[in-house]
Design brief:
alpha+beta; Glutaredoxin; 2 domains; 9 helices; elongated
Length: 304
C-alpha cells in the first residue's frame, strides 16, 4: 500500500489540522476566560448576564466553584481530545519545529499567550480578592458612623418560593434582613444576595440568626411561578430565606413603601438600583440600612 509522502518544506494534512487545533484551542480558551473574568464594573449588561449564566458569580464577582471547574476542565478536555484525535500529527509537528523557524515562532507565541493568560487570570483573582477585603474593611470602619433608624417597617405581604403568602409581621421575635434583587441581574444582585445569606452563618445557633427576605425588583418577569427557580439559582437554604414576588402593582407598592431607589430601562428591562439591605430588630423595626459587606451586616445584627 503506497505511503503518503510529506513534503520536506511543508506540513502533511494531519500536521496542519493539529496546528489549527492548537491555535483554535488557545483562541477559544482566551475568549472563554475573558468572558468569565471581565471586571463586573466594566462589563456591559448582556456580557455580565451571560457570564452569570455560564459561570455563576461569588461574593468577589468572580466565577463560583462550578464556574472554575468549567474554566479549567474545559480546555484540558479539549486538549485531551486533540491529543487523541491528532496524536501522530502533533508528534510530527513537534519534530518539525526543529527544521522550521516559522513553526518554532508559532509555538513560542502560543506559549507566551498561555503564560499571559494564566498571569492575567491570577492578577484578576488577586485584584478581586483585594477589592473585597478593602470593601469589608471599609464597611467595618463605617460601622461607627451607622445611625440607628428605629422606625417601623412598612407592610410586606408577598408570595414566597413555597407558594405561600409571607407576612413580615409573622417573623417578629428574630432579626430580619430585607434586600432587593431580580433574576436577570448579573452584577449587584448575586453579590448582595450572597452576602445576606453568608451573614446567617456566623450567627447560626446563637439565637441571632436572621431570616433573609429578597424582594424582587422585576415583578414583570420574576412572577410567583418563577420564584422556585430563582431560589435554586441563588442557593437559598430550605429555611429562613425567602424570595418574594406578587403582581406588578403589589410589588411596586412594597418597593415604594420601603423607599427603594430604582430605575427600569423599558427597552432592555435592566434595573439600576443600590445594594440595599435593611436590618430589622426582633420587634419588627428597621434598625439599620446597609449597603452590603458580610462582616458589616453581622456586626449590625449583633448591635440590635
Amino acid at each position: 500500500m503506497p505511503r503518503t509522502r510529506v513534503p520536506a518544506h511543508g506540513f502533511g494534512r494531519e500536521q496542519a489540522q493539529a496546528l489549527a487545533g492548537l491555535i483554535a484551542l488557545f483562541v477559544i480558551t482566551a475568549a472563554w476566560w475573558a468572558l468569565a473574568l471581565w471586571p463586573a464594573d466594566a462589563a456591559p449588561a448582556w456580557l455580565a448576564r451571560t457570564r452569570y449564566v455560564c459561570f455563576g458569580v461569588n461574593e468577589t464577582g468572580l466565577p463560583d466553584a462550578g464556574g472554575w471547574i468549567g474554566l479549567i476542565a474545559g480546555p484540558l478536555g479539549m486538549f485531551g481530545i486533540l491529543i487523541i484525535g491528532w496524536r501522530e500529527g502533533l508528534f510530527r509537528l513537534i519534530r518539525h519545529t526543529r527544521r522550521s523557524r516559522a513553526l518554532a515562532a508559532t509555538f513560542a507565541i502560543l506559549a507566551v499567550g498561555v503564560a499571559a493568560l494564566v498571569t492575567g487570570a491570577v492578577a484578576r483573582v488577586q485584584q478581586a480578592r483585594a477589592s473585597t477585603v478593602a470593601v469589608e474593611r471599609a464597611s467595618e470602619r463605617e460601622l461607627a458612623t451607622f445611625q440607628k433608624l428605629d422606625r417601623d417597617a412598612p407592610p410586606l405581604v408577598l408570595t414566597s418560593q413555597t407558594g405561600a403568602i409571607l407576612d413580615i409581621t409573622t417573623l417578629k421575635g428574630k432579626p430580619v434582613l430585607v434586600t432587593f434583587a431580580y433574576a436577570h441581574c448579573a452584577t449587584v444582585c448575586p453579590l448582595i444576595v450572597t452576602q445576606s445569606l453568608k451573614a446567617q452563618a456566623p450567627l447560626r445557633g446563637s439565637g441571632d440568626e436572621p431570616a433573609v427576605l429578597i424582594v424582587t425588583l422585576d415583578p414583570w418577569r420574576d412572577t410567583p411561578s418563577r420564584l422556585p427557580t430563582m431560589a435554586a439559582s441563588w442557593q437559598l437554604p430550605a429555611e429562613h430565606a425567602y424570595v418574594l414576588s406578587g403582581s406588578v402593582e403589589q410589588v411596586e407598592t412594597v418597593l415604594d413603601q420601603w423607599q427603594v431607589p430604582r430605575s427600569r430601562d423599558l427597552t432592555t428591562g435592566s434595573i439600576t438600583h443600590p445594594p440595599l439591605v435593611y436590618v430589622l430588630d426582633r420587634e419588627g423595626h428597621i434598625a439599620y440600612a446597609a449597603t452590603g459587606g458580610v462582616d458589616a451586616i453581622v456586626n449590625l445584627i449583633r448591635r440590635l
